[in-house]
Specification:
Elements lengths: L11 E2 L9 E5 L51 E5 L7 H10 L4 E5 L2 E4 L4 E4 L4 E4 L6 E4 L6 E6 L12 E2 L10 E3 L11 E7 L23 E9 L3 E5 L13 E6 L6 E2 L1 E9 L7 E9 L2 E8 L4 E9 L2 E3 L2 E3 L11 E3 L3 E2 L2 E3 L2 E3 L6 E2 L7 E2 L2 E3 L2 E3 L8 E2 L10 E3 L5 E4 L6 E2 L2 E3 L2 E2 L2 E4 L3 E2 L2 E3 L2 E2 L9 E5 L10 E7 L13 E2 L20 E2 L1 H5 L1 E3 L1 E3 L4 E4 L42 H7 L38
Length: 626
């Protein structure tokens, strides 16, 4: 047992409304265990098998060493050519240099503003870097148009994504990197491959809307891998499989190849600003059919639609970037976005200041994005009608991790269907957490939740099943299982709970799935989170381990972390519980180090919440990581 564990005497229900409830224990600030402030009503609940670790290993992926650019982003030092602004349209000169650049060299853009009216980039070219002279020093100015400013693509990206499945006879188990099939002819080396089940698991569900139904026969729930090699009957891939697909009952395990595709790899975009003011760009940066590529230390300003867009991307990275002041919000105005069949990508140490709606989103399309990580990002001034980070807008994402971020609101919206096995670890989320219907087997551990000003007409509660709870004066920390992306209403009926969840007989239209899904709460693990409704740490009584590890991503402080900032910086076991992360410091320009945290056996009193100032500074250069 961990040293922060207290004696827990009471198992309690922490739900308002007229539904089923789950057990939890609450540590008050004096170390005792008491009931919560919320109303209780008896009904069925899930029994979670007591795990041997703080999160059962079958609910997580091996993110460490498997996300982001393999071996880290290379520091290329050989300059192929340096380009200076012409005063006219610089698009052709930049593209000519990129297409001629030798492997592992750099096309350097000097200081100044480069005007472009079309797209800069390459098709099916590997291993080069397009580098500016610094964020705010070199600017790509895209003043009109509706395309993408920078676009890097492999040779072929089928759309819609391939759907032909091939039965797997061996492999597709946790830790395996080889599968066996009857015939591997359709599989292409250096191309994507998806492992999935046919049909999707019973605990998954696909949705259409406005009369255009989806179907659970679409293999949206899956994980993408890169094919390394093959024999006549086997395919070897990377990274290793994080999940035992053979445990899904009554389903055939299948592979879906991207036949004939070739992923561009080793391409980097670094150290510049892209300004889209006045345009109607689709996205400032577009990565498609790529492996091991990166966007580093890039500012994206005034984009009209998306900021940094990925499609069929594996092991790519967005690091130390600054997205801000979008021209518009609403559908198709996301920020750093992973669209379809993107896996094992890393979005880390970025500032998103009014940087999209939401600023960071996985599964921006209708298919899965799995095993991705959003870590240590600072999201601020997002449109109040939207949320900051999401692992699920499209259907089928699995094993994604959100760690160490500072945001206002988190939401997985269930619009095109569900997602599974997401983990939120050591984040600061002061307003709300919303997991909509079909969002199952999630893990919430070590987060600090709910430190947000409460209007005088509302009461802060842990959770509720009351439909349209705002009109009842309730302001929940968690909203679990509600059906609609933009409102807290349901039709008064319920799905589940069942063990496991079973959605296969439900309609595949959003408008026909307006029930409250109790499986969301029934399958969630919430353990070691401090919330400002209870003013206490809430533990799962089925989990004996009360020692929260520093990270799910790192075994020790990452090398890029500011040396004078404590790591980890967020968690109920620290004092203060919400410290400073490097991206937050760069945004504020604050050079004053945060005091080192100390273990905190009891919960802290509620601090006074302060409003976030609205401003647009450029990140302070003195704190840029090496």
């Amino acid at each position: 047992m961990g040293k922060f564990q207290t004696v827990c005497k009471t198992a309690i229900v922490i739900l308002m409304g007229n539904g089923y409830s789950a057990l939890a224990t609450v540590d008050d600030s004096d170390g005792s265990s008491t009931n919560t402030q919320t109303a209780v009503k008896s009904a069925p609940f899930f029994t979670i098998t007591t795990p041997t670790t703080i999160i059962p290993p079958e609910r997580t992926a091996q993110w460490q060493g498997n996300v982001g650019v393999p071996g880290g982003i290379p520091n290329r030092t050989t300059i192929f050519t340096t380009i200076t602004p012409s005063g006219g349209n610089d698009e052709s000169a930049i593209n000519a240099a990129l297409n001629s650049c030798p492997a592992n060299q750099v096309v350097l853009l000097g200081p100044g503003t480069f005007n472009v009216s079309g797209t800069i980039g390459t098709f099916n070219k590997n291993n080069y870097t397009l580098r500016g002279s610094g964020m705010g020093v070199t600017t790509l100015r895209y003043a009109s148009g509706s395309g993408s400013v920078v676009q890097i693509r492999g040779n072929s990206s089928p759309w819609p994504p391939p759907t032909t499945t091939y039965p797997i006879t061996a492999g597709a188990t946790k830790g395996s990197n080889t599968i066996t099939l009857a015939d591997t002819t359709p599989f292409t080396t250096n191309a994507s491959m998806v492992i999935a089940t046919n049909p999707i698991p019973s605990w998954g569900h696909n949705l259409g809307f406005l009369g255009s139904a989806s179907t659970d026969q679409n293999q949206t729930y899956g994980i993408s891998f890169r094919v390394i090699s093959k024999t006549a009957t086997t395919v070897t891939f990377e990274p290793a499989c994080p999940y035992d697909f053979t445990t899904v009952p009554n389903r055939q395990v299948v592979a879906i190849p991207y036949t004939g595709s070739n992923m561009a790899s080793g391409v980097g975009l670094e150290d510049l600003t892209i300004d889209c003011a006045g345009s109607q760009d689709f996205t400032a940066i577009w990565w498609e059919n790529v492996f091991g590529c990166w966007t580093k230390n890039v500012e994206v300003a005034h984009s009209y639609s998306r900021q940094i867009y990925h499609l069929f991307a594996i092991r790519c990275e967005v690091r130390h970037c600054y997205t801000h002041d979008v021209q518009a919000v609403g559908p198709n105005h996301e920020g750093i976005a992973l669209n379809t069949d993107c896996s094992w990508n890393l979005i880390e140490d970025n500032i998103c200041n009014a940087g999209g709606a939401p600023p960071i989103e996985f599964s921006d399309g209708t298919h899965h994005d799995s095993c991705n990580v959003a870590a240590y990002n600072y999201c601020v001034n997002t449109d109040p009608n939207f949320w900051d980070i999401s692992m699920s807008h499209g259907s089928g994402g699995m094993f994604n991790l959100v760690e160490g971020n500072i945001m206002r609101r988190y939401e997985d919206d269930g619009y095109f269907g569900g997602s599974a096995y997401g983990t939120l670890f050591r984040n600061s989320i002061p307003e709300m957490v919303l997991l909509k219907h079909f969002t199952v087997y999630y893990n919430f551990v070590g987060n600090v939740l709910g430190n947000w000003p409460v209007p005088p007409n509302l009461t802060r509660v842990y959770e509720t099943e009351v439909s349209n709870y705002w009109s009842s004066g309730l302001f929940p920390i968690y909203e679990l299982g509600f059906p609609n992306i933009g409102n807290p209403q349901y039709d008064g009926t319920f799905i589940g709970p069942t063990d496991p969840p079973d959605y296969h007989q439900l309609p595949n239209l959003l408008e026909d799935c307006q029930q409250l899904d109790r499986n969301v709460k029934g399958t969630i693990i919430r353990h070691g989170n401090y919330d400002y409704a209870n003013h206490a740490i809430v533990w799962d009584p089925n989990i004996a381990d009360h020692t929260i590890p520093p990270s799910m991503l790192y075994s020790s402080r990452p090398s890029w972390w500011d040396a004078d900032l404590p790591w980890p910086s967020i968690g109920p076991d620290l004092n203060p519980m919400e410290g400073t992360i490097p991206a937050q410091r760069r945004f504020s320009g604050d050079a004053t180090p945060t005091p080192s945290p100390t273990p905190m056996p009891t919960a802290s009193p509620t601090p006074t919440a302060t409003a976030t100032p609205r401003h647009t500074p450029r990140p302070h250069p003195s704190h840029a990581p090496g």
